[in-house]
Structures are given as C-alpha cells and as structure tokens.
Fold Synaptotagmin-4.
Amino acid sequence: MQNFRLASSLNDKIYFHLDSLPGVVTKLNKIMAFFFGVFLGVSIGIGLIIAFARYGKIRSTRRTDLARTIAAFARLTVQDSRKILPRQFYPPWVVFSQRQKLGWLNVQLEKIWPSVDEAASELIRASVEPILEQYTPAILSSMKFDKLTLGTVAPQFTGISIVESESGADGITMEMDMQWDGNPNIVLNINTKLGVSLPVQVKDIGFTGVFRLIFKPLVAQFPCFGAVAYSLREKRYLDFTLKVIGGDLSSIPGVSDAIEETIRNAVEDSITWPVRNIVPILPGDYSGLELKPVGTLDVKLVQAKELTNKDIIGKSDPFAVLFIRPLPDKTKRSKTIDNQLNPIWNENFEFIVEDVSTQHLTIKVFDDEGVQGAELIGCAQLALKELEPGKVKDVWLKLVKDLLVQRDNKYRGQVQLELLYNPYGTDSTFKNPFDANFSLTSLEKALKSPNSETEALAPEKAGQKKREVIVRGVLSVLVISGENLPPVDFNGKADPFVVLTMKKSETKSKTRVANETLNPVWNQTFDFVVEDALHEMLIIEVWDHDTFRKEKIGRIVMTLTRVLLEGEFQDNFTIDGAKSGNLHLHLKWSPQLVFRDRDTQ
C-alpha cells in the first residue's frame, strides 16, 4: 500500500512538471526573440550609418570631380573644343567660324530674305538717295535710283559677339561679321550737265565688314528693348562694277570715277560708324542714340623726315591729307612743299570728334605730280582714345604702304604731329593754343598774364566774329653744348657752330665757332621777339665751319608748344640728319597776350 502511494505521488509530480513545460518554452522563445531583435536592429543601424557615410563620401568625391571637370571645360579654347567635338556633331544653332559658310542664323536669313529684301530696299532708297544728291559731282546734274532690289543671294554672317564694354547697363551692343557676294538689281538714273541721260547699273557687289546693332534702352515690355540702332562698324572690303545699260561708260571721261566716288561717299556718310540709323520699336524719345559731336581735335602738322623719293629726276613734292571720316567736306589738305624729302609744313587743322573711343586720325602723304594726279608715299593712323583730353601730345608716326594689310616693311619716312583733343564742356577761362574758341586747362600757366583778357568765349555761330588769341612774347634760347657730333674734317674733328632761325619771322642768330671738337660748349643765350608763338617754329641747324666752305651737319625743328605749356625747360635734342650727336638747350618763354577779332565768313 505504501509503495503504491509513493508511486502515485511521483506520477503526480511528473504530470505537474509536464503540464508547466509549454509556458517555460514560450518564455524562452520570447527571450531569444528579444535578443535577436536587438541584435538585428543594432546591425541594421550600424549598416545604415556606414552606408550613409559611404554615400556622403562618394557624393563629395563626385562633386569634387564635377567641379574639376567644369573648371577644365572653362579653360578650354575654341581649338580644344574642335578637337573634342568634330564638326559633324555640331548642333544646328551654333554660329560657325568664318570658314563655315552656313549656320543656323544664315539658314533662317535665307528663308526670310525675300521679305528682308523688300523692306531693306525701301529703307536704302529713302536714306541713301538724299545723300547721293548731296555728293553729286560737278559734272553731273542729278543722280537717283531707278531700280533697287538686293537680289536673291542673302548675306552670310560669319561671327557674332557681344561688346560688353559698349553695352552699358540699359542696352546690348552686338557686332556681326558679314560677307556678301550679291546679285542686286541696282540701276541709277544719272543726268549729266551735257544733257545726256545714263542708266548706270551697279553690279558684282563684293562686301566684307562688321555690322553693329545697339538694342537700347532695355524695357519691361516685349520685345524688351525700345529701339534698335544699326551701323557699319568696320568696312573691310567693298567693290562693285558700273555698267551703262546699252552703252560704254568709259566713253565719257571722268564719269565712271565720279560716280564711284559718289557711291562710296554715300555709303560712308549714310551707314558707316559712327553714323547710327535708329529704328524705333516702341514709342519713346530715342534722341540719345543719335550721332552727336563730343569734341574737337586740333592737329598741328609739323614736319616729315626721310620720305621715300617718288621722282626719277629731283625729289618728291610732298603734301599731306588728314581726316577722321574720309568725306570731302571733312578732309584737310596741306600745302605742297616742292622738291623736299624733309618738308616742314607747320599747319593747323581742326576736326569734329563724334566717338573718341573708336575713331582714328588718318594721315596720308602724297607726291604731287601736277596734272598726272598724286602718288602715295605712305600713310599712318592714330587712335583718338590714346589722347588725354586737354593735353598736347607730340608724336612721330611711321608711314606704311597700307593701313589694313601691312605686309610691306619698307621704310617710307615719318611724320610729326601735335595733337590736342578738346571734349565739349571743358571748364577753363583760358584759351586753347590752336583755336581760341575752346578752352585748355593745361595752358593756363603758360598763357596767364596780368594784362591779358581772360573771359571765356562760347563757340560762335557761323557768320559771327571770333576772338583769336595772338601769343606774343620773348623766347630766350640758351645753347649750352653739343655732344658726340659726327667727325667732318680729315683730322676726325669738326668746327661746329649753331644757326637759330624763327621760321615765320625769318629772324636769325648764330653761335661762335667751336674749333676742332666733337663736344662743343657754347653757353650762349639768344632772345627772339615772337609776334605769333602759336604759329611760329624754331629751326636749329648745326654747321661745320671751314675756311672756304660750310657743311651742314644736321638740324632740329621744334614748335613753341612745349615752352608755351611749361614756361621754361631744359633738354637734350637729337640732331636729325646727322649720324650721331645731340644738342643741350634751355628755353624760356615770357608771354604777352594780344586779342584781335577775325571774321569767319
């Protein structure tokens, strides 16, 4: 019995433990799941942190590489771009270089050319015809358009650029390189003074140049600019043929050249920069875009030296032609100096300046051949932007054969100019040394005198009298010494002396002779009474003295402008025409101003 109870008790305990086993397993599963979740979450978090860190590093590296790539592209030149991207892969909107004849813009222009032809023909007729009448030569009585169309061949644009320096804050300035080999139908109805009517056809036009478009002012209303001004900024090449319909133009002497010159003058005066033709787009006042004078340029043509001899017998007979715009009424000509390769002109000219930033002064020196015309010796050009307003600039310009194509390096001589740019609105109570109508601040010291009249005079109208300042005074010249003069005598020495001449008054003085020396010392002072210093010149000649003859060593030619400006100065001057040597001079000016009235009619 007792054994039975023991067995029964053991069975009950076993059954009890077997009944509680599922709960224990469940608790173990939960504990294991918790630890697994914690492990998994930590692993995923660490993985995300590592992934984000790597992504940030990769992104930073990509940004650095992209920045380097952009910087590399920014440094690419046009030649580098052509190596990377061949022409067959260029997009259609790219405007190609001058060798590429067609681009997107040229294709579009060809499409609209018939409409452009009609509008442009009417515009040219209206603007050019009055100018043709203005420049009609004396042998013709009238010149008008009979027919005017630009033909079927559109111009080709070979380049476009934005001129940032000229655009400003309220406008855009664009320049377009253009070439045109057109087939226009242009017929001029020309009547001569002899009563002959000539229908002259202008054909075979060839043109290359740069057009400038100015979109100004910029506005908030479509098309975002108020007006457009157009001009021929640079005329590189212009050629055409004249033909009389049903006849020969050469049968009437001089007519062909006169018509060609008239056409070129009309192109220059109607469309060539700085002329601007304004087309209003939106209503408004666009007078600010119109061509207006900004100042005057005073030019003293001093001299030339070592000019090329164009004559077989004797020497050239040079004269000079000066202009800013090559129009007949804006071109100045000097007098002719006969039989001279080192001419002294000492002439003053005045020009109107309309755009100092782009215009040039051009000088051409010719040999006067009389009835046979003139032969070009050489030409030179100076940009007006190189001049400082109100300051006289003394320059020597080297002459060349051609200003555009400078392939000929032959020496043709030099020309000396004194230039003074006077912008309108200069405030000064003293007179310009070249023209009394404008003021010059830098001359105040030189022209100031207790007895001088100093009232400022505004520019006078035509037909009225002007005040002309006559600068009278005493010029003192101290001839100090010479240095390194060329040997003239057989003993390798020289016996130099100096002759001083006032060109206009022909007053002369000379130093004593310094015997047997190439480095003479004189220390002699000469006083000259000068009646008109603005137009006077001092010529200093160095001679070698011998018993039976005198030999000229060289000379120095100078205007009085510097001594007028500075009052007194001392300097070394190179002797022109001598192999070596210079003179040491001291000049002093004591002024006295005189005013007189002169009639401008």
In short: Residues 83 and 601 are 67 Å apart (CA to CA). Helices lie at 2-74, 78-84, 104-134, 164-167, 255-270, 444-447, 561-566.
